[in-house]
Specification:
- With about 230 residues, this protein is an alpha/beta fold.
- The protein has eight helices and twelve strands.
- The strands form three sheets. The protein has a five-stranded parallel β-sheet, with helices on both faces. The chain has a four-stranded antiparallel β-sheet with strand order 6-7-8-9, with no helix packed on it. A three-stranded antiparallel β-sheet has the order 10-12-11.
- Helix 6 packs across helix 8 (about 190-205).
Length: about 230
């Protein structure tokens, strides 16, 4: 389930979008300003953002520039009542990935969000993920390298799916344990680090110098689906 963060101080619009997007299968977070946006992003992974231009305090253009300057952040769809070409260009130049003028059709918003998710590494519905020579079929729980299927045991596949659903986000060991079901059972080793090591042996050319599954010292791990 893709996580959408809506940053808009129009509570009525935000609530309507939340209801519509959740009905379409998204998980939705809300923020009314830049401070709340940062709090939501610090609390957990965000896959795509809907960012209003006009916000109290720091506006959407400035927030987008800050995100791109720091760690890139998730794909951003900017909303604005300003529909002129000059405003759209300014929005795109700030680092947003798409721009939608108000008023808009909610179905078009969903289509654009799904397109952004595909461009960021997920296809329609998040069922496939391409990285390097690999192709992960999430629903089927199968990994391919080229045309050949790669043998992955259930424990490592569970871990790969957790990472694949949250690309480019730093995941702590505690969060990984929670996402894997909380309590350990007989299928898994006791250590997240051991599972990561085993997964690296499957997907990395050089497990000691990982390209896809990177260590963020003191924070956890980050999956980078590099093509």
């Amino acid at each position: 389930m893709a996580v959408v963060l809506i940053v808009d101080d129009d509570q009525r619009l935000a609530a309507m979008l939340q209801e519509f997007l959740e009905a379409q299968g998204f998980a939705v977070l809300l923020a009314a300003n830049g401070q709340q946006m940062r709090q939501q992003m610090a609390a957990g992974p965000v896959d795509v953002m809907v960012l209003d231009w006009m916000l109290p305090g720091q506006d959407g253009i400035s927030l987008a520039k800050d995100l791109r300057r720091k760690d890139g952040g998730p794909p951003i769809l900017m909303l604005s009542a300003r529909g002129e070409d000059e405003e759209r260009i300014l929005g795109l130049e700030s680092g947003v990935d798409d721009y939608l003028a108000k008023p808009f059709n909610a179905r078009e918003l969903v289509a654009r969000l799904r397109a952004l998710l595909r461009r960021s590494g997920k296809d329609e519905g998040g069922e496939k993920l391409h990285f390097g020579d690999f192709r992960l079929h999430m629903a089927e729980r199968r990994l391919y390298r080229g045309d050949a299927e790669v043998d992955v045991n259930p424990a490592e596949m569970e871990l790969l799916l957790v990472f694949a659903q949250r690309p480019r986000h730093i995941l702590s060991r505690d969060l990984l344990l929670q996402l894997l079901g909380g309590e350990e059972d007989g299928r898994f080793d006791r250590s997240i680090d051991v599972r990561v090591t085993r997964l690296r042996k499957i997907i990395e050319e050089s497990p000691r110098q990982p390209r896809f599954l990177q260590t963020e010292r003191g924070a956890g791990y980050r999956f980078m689906p590099i093509s």
